[in-house]
Design brief:
- By secondary structure, the protein is of the alpha+beta class.
- The protein is 18% helix and 28% strand.
- Strands 1-2-11-3-4-9-10 form a 7-stranded antiparallel beta sheet. Strands 7-6-5-8 form a 4-stranded antiparallel beta sheet, with no helix packed on it.
- Strand 6 and strand 7 form a beta hairpin.
- The chain is globular and about 65 Å long.
- The N and C termini lie far apart (36 Å).
- The relative contact order is 0.21.
Length: 174
């Protein structure tokens, strides 16, 4: 019986590894719909609304995400899981930040107020996001799903080159 259980575990781990190598990812966080996503290979340009995956390498925010368990262990070079977000701002877009949230080209992005504390009342570091025009090679990624999401309102703009487009395969509704 032990050999059968061991064989089953090895088989399941092998299947999981193959799915991972094929670009399949599972999102269990509340910042985007929970479900299965797949990386799309060979996409060079991005549009507003694209789903993307990225590794957070902006300090002090990567360390903060690790220390506060915002991100679980994962496949990024720093050992954290990638973020799953939506492309909200692209080069040439005008960013405004006010008490209601972030405006892109004059349009308020829902649920984007910048919080001074997280859901456990721990203070957030000052946001790196600044008003102005998004420069070439940069993007703003946000979550339209959760107003408490850890996204570009805190760690600022990210290089377009760091983004990987994803598509939803199966979304699990509560």
């Amino acid at each position: 019986m032990k050999k059968l259980v061991g064989l089953f575990v090895v088989l399941m781990l092998s299947i999981a590894a193959l799915l991972f190598l094929e670009g399949f990812r599972f999102n269990a966080t509340a910042s985007m719909p929970r479900g299965i996503y797949q990386l799309i290979v060979g996409t060079a340009s991005f549009q507003h609304g694209d789903l993307v995956s990225l590794c957070l390498d902006v300090e002090p925010f990567a360390t903060l995400a690790r220390d506060r368990d915002y991100l679980r262990p994962g496949s990024c070079p720093d050992g954290l899981q990638p973020l799953l977000k939506v492309v909200a701002g692209l080069p040439g877009d005008i960013l405004e930040i006010d008490p209601d949230g972030i405006r892109i080209n004059g349009r308020l992005q829902p649920g984007t107020r910048i919080a001074v504390a997280d859901s456990h009342a721990r203070p957030m570091p000052e946001s790196l996001l600044a008003a102005g025009t998004i420069s070439e090679g940069m993007a703003l990624v946000l979550s339209g799903e959760h107003p408490g999401s850890f996204d570009g309102r805190y760690f600022g703009l990210v290089p377009l080159a760091s983004l990987k487009r994803v598509r939803s395969i199966r979304i699990f509704t509560p």
